[in-house]
Amino acid sequence: MISKFNFICFNFFFFLFMFSILNFIFMIYFIMTNLVLFLEWEIITLNSTSVVMSILLDWMSLLFMMFVSLISSVVIYYSKSYMNSELNLVRFMNLVILFVFSMILLIISPNMISILLGWDGLGLVSYCLVIYYQNLKSYNAGMLTALSNRIGDVLILMVISWMLNYGSWNYIFYLNFMKNDYEMILIGSMIVMAAMTKSAQIPFSSWLPAAMAAPTPVSALVHSSTLVTAGVYLLIRFNFLLLDMFIMKILLLVSILTMFMSGISANYEFDLKKIIALSTLSQLGLMMSILSIGFPDLAFFHLLTHAMFKALLFMCAGVIIHLMNDIQDIRYMGGINLYIPLTSLCLNISNMALCGVPFLAGFYSKDLILEMVSFSNLNMVVFLLYYISTGLTMFYSFRLLMYTMVNEFNLLCIYNLYDEDFIMLKSMFILLFMSILSGSFLSWMIFSYPYMIYLPLNLKLMVLYVSLFGGLMGYFISNMKIYSLNKFLLTYNMSMFLCLMWFMPSLSTYGLIFYFLNFSQKLYKNIDLGWSEVYSGQGIIIILKNYSIFYNFYQMNNFKIYLFSFILWILIILFLFML
């Protein structure tokens, strides 16, 4: 089984890696010649009805496909070692490949039907991957993920039904000149809400940390370039339609609150994978908010740079969890850089790229986004929340670094950590290289002219101030008990509110079903076990039982009862004759 799995892994890794290189070459050609290809393949024609598959190839879809195939090839190669001791390895690999192909179908689709196929494929396969370990926690997480994404699927189906008004589902033809049409405004609103479910914006945020029940390679794939970025990519494609719509103002507020909420929650979290998942949620909020202001190119730029270092972060976390005997609590870690220096190097560089440390991948996109926010005509609340959320990113990243690298090792004193899994290391070093270089190479390639943003000195350095303050806070907080600090600053209920993502997991699960379950319990108690029992099953049984006891007594051939019944019948007959 293992040799077969290794063979399949290597084949898929080689195929996807070559596919990413091919996409890169085509993308360079397309971007230099400003070429867009719209291909239509007629699959079947029957009685003047044709089933057509449409494909849109431009620099954006080719570049995104290159990133998706590169990250998935590296993750598959990483799985070769990470999933080595598991059962059902071939099934796992088939699911991962289905997942990647669903994403590629979504990327190249200019048609709502094929978008639905890719969109629904992502939702279905993600459910299968989240429940891979088949325990109660993963079943609950899988159901929460599937049902949250199902809302988006229903909205896409409604978009398909509304687009019947136009005679074709190729949405790219209608984005410009049907802008003020009533149907198009409805379609745009539904697309925004569907994207909010897939990209886990408030109030659909609770499924994203819950999806951590999946194996770590799957988390690396989901949180970098596939499932959660589908909503952002869809909004980038629909951006022409959505620019002047009121719902974009709502999306701006919601996405900034998502960014703020996840930044705060990550500072209270002790689960290594959950901290990284909440950082993904924060970056998704950043992408969505810059999209709602009207900068789709910047959102796409950050989406690509973020994909690299986030996949690397998850892969480093997977190595650490493996070596720590499947322990994910960062309080048990500490000083791991002494034992696993190469993994620690990858973790620290990807963490710094996430924070936006100058000249790493995250810096080029995050700094540009924050400067455009400073430049834009936005109110003070949006401005403050942007910069506070940026500071919180530095806060939880520095806290993670302190807990894993600087503090003392808190596991068993005889525990042996080693850094010799070369398959994992090779795959991580590919992404490390990209995490350092992808920001600069993408900024030179996507933007044909350099952005020159002229701001006052304090506003220009505001990102630096906020990041330094966040880093200092992370350093001080990780050296003291965070809950003891809460006793001075906050009440217990307030700290629980901040810790548990503003009670969103409870609201989206128990909060939604509590009244229905409570009502059904009362129905069960009063109807099924009450009146229903009396007047149906149990009641009929008791009546029949009493009658049978009476008839049994009557039929025992007792002479007294026979005479009494004879006299009774005579009296009844006389009474009837007298009437």
UniProtKB/TrEMBL annotation:
<keyword id="KW-0249">Electron transport</keyword>
<keyword id="KW-0830">Ubiquinone</keyword>
<feature type="transmembrane region" description="Helical">
    <location>
        <begin position="154"/>
        <end position="172"/>
    </location>
</feature>
<comment type="similarity">
    <text>Belongs to the complex I subunit 5 family.</text>
</comment>
<feature type="transmembrane region" description="Helical">
    <location>
        <begin position="336"/>
        <end position="361"/>
    </location>
</feature>
<dbReference type="GO" id="GO:0042773">
    <property type="term" value="P:ATP synthesis coupled electron transport"/>
</dbReference>
<dbReference type="Pfam" id="PF00361">
    <property type="entry name" value="Proton_antipo_M"/>
</dbReference>
<dbReference type="GO" id="GO:0015990">
    <property type="term" value="P:electron transport coupled proton transport"/>
</dbReference>
<keyword id="KW-0813">Transport</keyword>
<dbReference type="GO" id="GO:0005743">
    <property type="term" value="C:mitochondrial inner membrane"/>
</dbReference>
<feature type="domain" description="NADH-Ubiquinone oxidoreductase (complex I) chain 5 N-terminal">
    <location>
        <begin position="44"/>
        <end position="93"/>
    </location>
</feature>
<feature type="transmembrane region" description="Helical">
    <location>
        <begin position="275"/>
        <end position="295"/>
    </location>
</feature>
<feature type="transmembrane region" description="Helical">
    <location>
        <begin position="220"/>
        <end position="240"/>
    </location>
</feature>
<keyword id="KW-0472">Membrane</keyword>
<keyword id="KW-1278">Translocase</keyword>
<dbReference type="InterPro" id="IPR001516">
    <property type="entry name" value="Proton_antipo_N"/>
</dbReference>
<dbReference type="Pfam" id="PF00662">
    <property type="entry name" value="Proton_antipo_N"/>
</dbReference>
<feature type="transmembrane region" description="Helical">
    <location>
        <begin position="489"/>
        <end position="515"/>
    </location>
</feature>
<feature type="transmembrane region" description="Helical">
    <location>
        <begin position="423"/>
        <end position="447"/>
    </location>
</feature>
<feature type="domain" description="NADH dehydrogenase subunit 5 C-terminal">
    <location>
        <begin position="396"/>
        <end position="576"/>
    </location>
</feature>
<keyword id="KW-0520">NAD</keyword>
<dbReference type="InterPro" id="IPR001750">
    <property type="entry name" value="ND/Mrp_TM"/>
</dbReference>
<feature type="transmembrane region" description="Helical">
    <location>
        <begin position="12"/>
        <end position="39"/>
    </location>
</feature>
<comment type="function">
    <text>Core subunit of the mitochondrial membrane respiratory chain NADH dehydrogenase (Complex I) that is believed to belong to the minimal assembly required for catalysis. Complex I functions in the transfer of electrons from NADH to the respiratory chain. The immediate electron acceptor for the enzyme is believed to be ubiquinone.</text>
</comment>
<feature type="transmembrane region" description="Helical">
    <location>
        <begin position="381"/>
        <end position="402"/>
    </location>
</feature>
<feature type="transmembrane region" description="Helical">
    <location>
        <begin position="90"/>
        <end position="109"/>
    </location>
</feature>
<feature type="domain" description="NADH:quinone oxidoreductase/Mrp antiporter transmembrane">
    <location>
        <begin position="109"/>
        <end position="389"/>
    </location>
</feature>
<feature type="transmembrane region" description="Helical">
    <location>
        <begin position="59"/>
        <end position="78"/>
    </location>
</feature>
<dbReference type="InterPro" id="IPR010934">
    <property type="entry name" value="NADH_DH_su5_C"/>
</dbReference>
<feature type="transmembrane region" description="Helical">
    <location>
        <begin position="115"/>
        <end position="133"/>
    </location>
</feature>
<keyword id="KW-0999">Mitochondrion inner membrane</keyword>
<dbReference type="InterPro" id="IPR003945">
    <property type="entry name" value="NU5C-like"/>
</dbReference>
<dbReference type="GO" id="GO:0008137">
    <property type="term" value="F:NADH dehydrogenase (ubiquinone) activity"/>
</dbReference>
<protein>
    <recommendedName>
        <fullName>NADH-ubiquinone oxidoreductase chain 5</fullName>
        <ecNumber>7.1.1.2</ecNumber>
    </recommendedName>
</protein>
<dbReference type="Pfam" id="PF06455">
    <property type="entry name" value="NADH5_C"/>
</dbReference>
<feature type="transmembrane region" description="Helical">
    <location>
        <begin position="307"/>
        <end position="324"/>
    </location>
</feature>
<feature type="transmembrane region" description="Helical">
    <location>
        <begin position="561"/>
        <end position="578"/>
    </location>
</feature>
<feature type="transmembrane region" description="Helical">
    <location>
        <begin position="535"/>
        <end position="554"/>
    </location>
</feature>
<keyword id="KW-0812">Transmembrane</keyword>
<comment type="function">
    <text>Core subunit of the mitochondrial membrane respiratory chain NADH dehydrogenase (Complex I) which catalyzes electron transfer from NADH through the respiratory chain, using ubiquinone as an electron acceptor. Essential for the catalytic activity and assembly of complex I.</text>
</comment>
<keyword id="KW-0496">Mitochondrion</keyword>
<feature type="transmembrane region" description="Helical">
    <location>
        <begin position="453"/>
        <end position="477"/>
    </location>
</feature>
